[in-house]
Amino acid sequence: MKTLLKIEAGAKLARPEHPLGGALVSRGSLIGLGTVGVLLATWYVLTMVTGTIDTGRFPSPDDVWVAANQVVIKGYANGRLHIHILHSLKLVAMGFLFAIAVGVPLGLLMGWSSRAEALINPIFLLVRPVPPLAWIPLAILWLGLGDSAKVMVIFFAAFVPAVINTYAAVRNISSPIVEAARMLGTPRTALVLEVLVPAALPSIFTGLRLALQASWTTLVAAELVGAVAGLGRILNVAQQDLYPGMILVAMIWVAILGWSTTRLLAAIEERALPWLVVRG
Amino acid sequence: MRLDPRLTIARSETLMLGSLGLLAFLGLWSGIAASGYVPRSFLPAPWEMVARFTHLLTNPFVGFTLPQHLASSLGRYAMGFGLAAVVGIPLGLMMGWFRWLDDMVTPVFDALRFIAPIAWVPFAALWFGTGIGGPVMIIFSGAFPPCVINAYRGARYVERHLIEAAEMLGTGSFRMITEVLLPASIPSIVAGLRVAAGLGWQSLVGAELIVASSGVGYMMVQGQSAVSTTTVMSGMMAIGIVGVLIDAALRSFERSVRRSRGLD
């Protein structure tokens, strides 16, 4: 299990000697905060004071505030903000959960049984090079512009990383662990549940994280192509209305949702893998 | 099923099972298509897809043949990917050397990272139009992060004694970056380029579905509105084949770089 520990954190010490030296920890975050502050101030000055940036192309802070208020209170593109957010979240959750419900067991099967791998791998290699976004037109032809087409595309996006990382996880379990468990007469179900699955979990979670990111990208693309609700729908309508403030609001919400669902997955990972936290 | 990761099977059995799986897949697909349970326009048979693909190689669809669409896609792709490498690699190396730059850029970079490249589509269309500029910007936003991150990592993990030796000889920042950090980070940079190439290709497809007037993605959207499933599938096939070729080319490049440095 030692190899599965996250040792990258320790490797940070190998940073080359810096001209500025590395004594102060807070100095870095101060510079970071300062940069963000300067950027925001520059944005304000260039759009609202000097007018160097055309607000028809990039919104001023004021425009963003107005757009944010409008979408929250009055609604935009057939609905208020929470409706769009819930709609997008629902589609990502469905596609993602469906993909891992199929992908993780398939990866486990391919990892454990060479026969299953030999049987399934060629089909997988045939489908895998097609990027998830390239399924969008076919999904629309098959299922129309509704929710099921989006769930199908998100499924394809999340499925591949889920299978690959689970498969690699099982393949990389060191055989002494399995042999030791066998020697102690561990029954088959216990071998799966108490040895193989815990040993494979860290890498499976890596796959889930990649799958989640792919799900969000694909959702936005699918909703941009055509949707009745969702954050991509806001982006699409705002683009047609030439409404930069609303475009930025929708982009910020895409980032917030992507970030918070990733945090949620990380929290689940910490609960599921307490031993890594304790040792790390 | 035996629960043993070490169990291996003979090569001939792998080959046999593999072809069995493929045949079952293609057989099922052909069977459903030929049975008439689903309309042909909905699910064409594999041979119909291949026939359409070869037809598109020489006959134009929405103005261009498939190779012409591909050429237009690849032109955009080369521009976006090239721009990402030319801007991203020096930025990553400089962030690895100047801590103040690292402290300045990293928070901004981390905030932008969670915006999916595709979410830039409306701004890309607004700023650069739907011809070449818009799609190039989307490809750039997909390929840029791995270029920066891998150059940065490469520069950060350079062996300390190399830097100390160069510093002792009075090397300035510019030569330190170009003559010490860059050569030492090449393997990491090349690995980043491969990731960037894949992400860029994906973003290209997304960009062309939404904001382009030529290219394979555009051809697929037009095929979709004409309810020509075979055209859409031919586009998917072309995208898959080109994606595999790009990855194979960069993979062999990465291998030769690693071998020339004695890493493999």
What would you say this structure looks like, in words?
The complex is a heterodimer of chains A (280) and B (264). Chain A has 2 domains: 21-53; 56-279, Orthogonal Bundle (MetI-like fold), CATH 1.10.3720. The two termini of chain A are 12 Å apart. Chain A is mainly α. Mean pLDDT of chain A is 84; it is low at 1-17 and 19-24. Chain A has helices spanning 8-11, 26-49, 61-74, 81-112, 114-127, 136-143, 147-171, 175-183, 188-225, 231-240, 244-272, 274-279. Chain A has 12 helices and no strands. With 264 residues, chain B is an all-alpha fold. Chain B folds into 2 domains: 11-38; 52-260, Orthogonal Bundle (MetI-like fold), CATH 1.10.3720. Chain B is 78% helix and 0% strand. Chain B contains 10 helices and no strands. Chain B has helices at 11-35, 46-58, 66-97, 99-113, 121-128, 133-156, 160-168, 173-211, 216-225, 229-260. Chain B starts with 10 loop residues before the first helix and ends with a helix. The model of chain B has no long low-confidence stretch (mean pLDDT 88). Classes of the chains: A mainly alpha (280), B mainly alpha (264). Chains A and B meet through helix 2, helix 4, helix 5, helix 6 and helix 9 of A and helix 1, helix 4, helix 5, helix 7 and helix 8 of B.
